[in-house]
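User: Please fill in residues for this 346-position structure.
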């Protein structure tokens, strides 16, 4: 019985075997070369926490590792930077960049080394709404390309517990009034409440920042007061026996931080006659108060001379340098002798 005969295609013809081999080799090169280029570096993204308040900074850390056997240099070109980010929302819609594009200094990564770059995403991307987002880092430069695995973070809106708008002092030569709206906002963490300060310019629809003050407990307060310079002072209970304090200026910059204990007295915010605000009472535990040493502490007087030792008492009645006379010895010996009972005849 004759078997079935399948006609050989043109690829099976002996005359076309070399061209077929060249095509397969070219395909393998096209697949292997990009993979090897991609494998030269890797990039990983990390975040300190994945829950952020609305208008709070969103710092991410990009860790770029060099797996190649050569030093890789990453530099920006005129239009793009060597590090960028792909951000999308829950609907997979891309979050567009805002403001100035990202720019970085040139970086050289030696073989086997890792370079870490921290970037705040808030000023560079439209992340001014609540929701859950996904971000990936992209590295392009030095003949390499890498894309990080995605990480997720959530932007939430906290609970507002205090709010006040105040006019700022007018600088010399200026006539336009400037205003700030300060607010205390609380966010529920896993096991505690976290207190924030929001600084905004409502007339111009500007947000200067959302500053975390720290964990707080609900045992009275927090207390807020604005001084004559337009700075906000906040005193809140940060523990059973401790109180946190912060001073925030009109540009959302932290001027001062401190921690007080209430073991001896309770700290309070007090406004002076000139409008200045200070903390009265309590014992400052952080930072430690510096004390100026007196001259007596810097140059103490010499110590007094040691007291003379008391004279030694001797149990021998004649003293250490005296010798008993023979008469005394004979007398003592005679005294210790037993009486003589012999009698003489007369």
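Assistant: Residues filled in for all 346 positions:
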């Amino acid at each position: 019985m004759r078997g079935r005969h399948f006609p050989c295609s043109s690829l099976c013809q002996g005359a076309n075997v070399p061209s077929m081999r060249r095509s397969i080799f070219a395909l393998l090169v096209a697949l292997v070369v990009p993979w090897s280029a991609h494998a030269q570096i890797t990039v990983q993204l990390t975040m300190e926490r994945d829950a952020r308040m609305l208008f709070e900074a969103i710092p991410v850390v990009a860790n770029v590792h060099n797996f190649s056997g050569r030093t890789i240099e990453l530099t920006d070109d005129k239009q793009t930077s060597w590090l960028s980010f792909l951000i999308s929302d829950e609907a997979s819609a891309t979050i567009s960049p805002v403001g100035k594009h990202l720019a970085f200094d040139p970086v050289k990564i030696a073989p086997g080394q890792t370079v870490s770059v921290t970037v705040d995403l808030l000023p560079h991307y439209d992340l001014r709404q609540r929701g859950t987002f996904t971000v990936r880092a992209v590295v392009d430069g030095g003949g390499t390309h890498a894309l990080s695995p995605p990480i997720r973070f959530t932007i939430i809106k906290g609970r507002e517990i205090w709010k006040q708008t105040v006019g700022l002092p007018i600088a010399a030569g200026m006539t336009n009034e400037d205003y700030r709206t300060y607010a205390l906002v609380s966010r529920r963490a896993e096991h505690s409440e976290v207190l924030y300060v929001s600084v905004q310019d409502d007339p111009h629809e500007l947000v200067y920042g959302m500053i975390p003050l720290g964990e707080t407990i609900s045992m009275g307060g927090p207390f807020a007061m604005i001084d004559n310079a337009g700075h906000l002072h906040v005193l809140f209970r940060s523990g059973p026996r401790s109180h946190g304090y912060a001073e925030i200026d009109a540009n959302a910059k932290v001027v001062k931080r401190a921690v007080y204990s209430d073991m001896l007295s309770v700290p309070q915010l007090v406004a002076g006659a000139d409008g200045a605000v200070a903390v009265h009472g309590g014992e400052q535990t952080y930072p430690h108060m510096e004390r100026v040493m007196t001259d007596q502490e810097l140059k103490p007087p010499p110590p007094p001379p040691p007291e003379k030792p008391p004279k030694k008492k001797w149990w021998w009645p004649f003293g250490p340098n005296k010798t008993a006379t023979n008469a005394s010895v004979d007398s003592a010996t005679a005294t210790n002798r037993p009486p003589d009972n012999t009698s003489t005849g007369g």
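For context: The radius of gyration is 43 Å.
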